[in-house]
Amino acid sequence: MGNVLRLVKGAPAGTFDSALLAYGYNLFNTDGLEVMQECEARGIAVHVAGAFMLGVFNTGSDTRAPPPGGSNKSESTADEKQQWAALAEKHGVPLPSVALAFAFAPTVSSPNLCSPLPLAQAADC
């Protein structure tokens, strides 16, 4: 995230109209928060790739770990997913919907999805 932040901060106003965060903002990783805050202050849209974290939130797979350079949290991916799933269940919301809502939460965010299927699955609540 450091390179994106450096570029956004160092560029003259109006240079960028959007930025892409690949796996930098999802339920497992909020490393991109500072980038999002800076972009919001500058009116730059942010596209979030990886809202479903390599399918962990919408396929049921617990075997995929965050990509290299992801979160440094000590808990395993499976443990974190269980915690998010329990919270989602408590509120009667499917886990993919929580992941998508989280990615959409910042005002500058626009999640990029590989296909319309995850969006349709998440919206089916």
Q: How are the elements arranged and paired?
A:
Blueprint: H1 2-10, E1 18-22, H2 33-42, E2 45-49, H3 56-59, H4 77-90, H5 95-104, E3 109-112, H6 116-123
Parallel strand pairs: 1-2, 2-3
Helix pairs in contact: 1-2, 5-6
Structure report:
The chain has helices spanning 2-10, 33-42, 56-59, 77-90, 95-104, 116-123; strands spanning 18-22, 45-49, 109-112. The protein has 125 residues and is of the alpha/beta class. It has one domain (2-62, 70-115): NADP-dependent oxidoreductase domain (TIM Barrel). Strands 1-2-3 form a 3-stranded parallel sheet. The chain is elongated and about 45 Å long.
Count of discrete domains: 1
Query: How would you sum up the global shape?
Result: elongated
β-strand percent reads: 5-15%
Structural class: alpha/beta
Reported by name, the CATH topology is TIM Barrel
Would you kindly provide a brief summary of this structure?
The chain is built from six helices and three strands. With 125 residues, the chain is α/β, with parallel strands linked by helices. It has a single domain, classed as NADP-dependent oxidoreductase domain (TIM Barrel).
List keywords for this structure.
single chain, 125 residues, alpha/beta, TIM Barrel, three-stranded parallel beta sheet, 6 helices, 11% strand, elongated
